[in-house]
């Protein structure tokens, strides 16, 4: 893979990771938290944010849990791609 292709791939992955975090954050605020901090209790599903629980459907709970897991992958990817892009930036002339 040549250098331009690596840079283009890193730019794409960087943007994808940032977009994933923004969508996660907006939906967590809208839904009232996330499932990783939430709980399942007696057939009810709760998201949690800042100590407050919000009851949601099972589908929303499962979606939230997987979206949190996806940020655990995309966050390090953003840092790696950002570092790579920083190291391979062209100097200003």
Topology:
Blueprint: H1 3-31, E1 34-41, E2 44-49, E3 52-56, H2 58-87
Antiparallel strand pairs: 1-2, 2-3
Helix pairs in contact: 1-2
Keyword list:
single chain, 93 residues, alpha+beta, 2 helices, 3 strands
Summarize this structure briefly.
This protein has 93 residues and is α+β, with helices and mostly antiparallel strands. It has helices at residues 3-31, 58-87; strands spanning 34-41, 44-49, 52-56.
What's the main sheet like?
3 strands, antiparallel
The unreliable regions are none
For the largest sheet, list the strands in their spatial order.
Answer: 1-2-3
Structural class: alpha+beta
Query: What is the overall number of helices?
Result: 2
Q: How would you state the average pLDDT, rounded?
A: 94
Indicate the percent of residues in helices: 55-70%
Tell me the radius of gyration: 18 Å
Strand content: 15-25%
Q: For the terminal residues, how far apart are their CA atoms? A: 27 Å
Outline: elongated
Sequence of secondary-structure elements: HEEEH
Number of discrete domains? 1
Strand element count: 3
Written overview of the protein:
- With 93 residues, this protein is α+β, with helices and mostly antiparallel strands.
- It has one domain (3-87).
- Helices cover 63% and strands 20% of the residues.
- It is built from two helices and three strands.
- A three-stranded antiparallel beta sheet has the order 1-2-3.
- α1 packs antiparallel against α2 (58-87).
- The protein starts with a helix and ends in a 6-residue tail after the last helix.
- The mean pLDDT is 94.
